[in-house]
Amino acid sequence: MSFYxxxxxxxxxxxxxxxxxxxxMEKLIQQKPHLNIQHNMTxxxxxQKRTMDECFEMFKVIHQLTVxxxxxxxxxxxxxxxxxxxxxxxxxxxxxxxxxxTTGMTKKSYVEAILEAIKQCKREGVDIDVKFLxxxxxxxxxxxxxxxxxxxxxxxASTDGLVVGVDLSGDxxxxxxxxxxxxxxxxxxxGLKLAVHMAEIPHxxxxxxMFLGLPPDRIGHGTFLHPEVGGSEYLVDIIxxxxxxxxxxxxxxxKGQTVSSYDQHHFKYWYNRGHSCVICTDGKGAFASDLSQxxxxxxTTFNLSKAQIWxxxxxxxxxxxxxxxxxxxxxxxxxxxxxxxxxxxxxxxx
Length: 350
Ligand SMILES: CNc1ncnc2c1ncn2[C@@H]1O[C@H](COP(=O)(O)O)[C@@H](O)[C@H]1O
Ligand SMILES: [Zn+2]
Description:
Helix content is 47%, strand content 13%. The protein is α/β, with parallel strands linked by helices.
């Protein structure tokens, strides 16, 4: 096991359907041979790249393979176990509730299947704490967004802390932020936390400013926020003033070509400003990575020390959506694990 796998980690930006591993994907492909889907249609392998449009086409292909509650339950369980095996101790999984007339899957049963997978992993003793965010897909418009918030509210009330928030995601090139402010505000009023994909593509300063007015509890990607890439000092100031953590997904951005190389990744900008950065995978299946690999890439690309890597992981605990008691438990766990880990890899404890 590498240092990065042994490092306890939290994963805060993982879409269920883009987190499906090669092994699980092969099972799904075999179960549905009539679809004639090849694995290279569901993942971007090492050295390959796609445009953002191609990424969203790829997600549609993946969705064809997960159409029943059995599929959803199975992929959720596998994804959770894989994160646990990679040393993730706390995971916030997110997914867009989907209905499917051919199988009778409803949005409600979709969410229930994921929550059941989370509970079953817990009963089986899988060493990971998992929470769930309902995703709003910005392709589907404000009416569906409000329905998703209502559904989130029901589960928020009935699941004793499993559902912690909502996410706004989907193709950033479609629809406009203004349509999603009201649903996001409604979610906030219920007590749900907000994770918002923002500035994933350039020239969206106006909608970014609107989102920041909420403000969200965490920002997804934030690739084009700072002045050097067409954002602005004004936007940066708001983010710093509100201390809004940013979920950074290095390989996803590289393979989706919104960032030209690892060393050009905006991790550098935000980290050097001392701003809260959380390293995440986005979709460990579709982008063919895992969280330990993302930490390793951050270390080598930005010349970080193992102590700095440890701190990024430890500080990420502050940005989880679960309550303070969960944060304290995780911090205690990290502190318990640190001496053994640093000893094993012959590192100095700062
Ligand atoms: C690459 N950057 C990204 N930007 C925006 N949204 C993304 C995304 N990657 C994934 N999604 C969102 O997550 C869905 C797939 O997982 P779920 O079916 O919800 O589990 C996609 O359809 C899209 O809405
Ligand atoms: Zn995402």
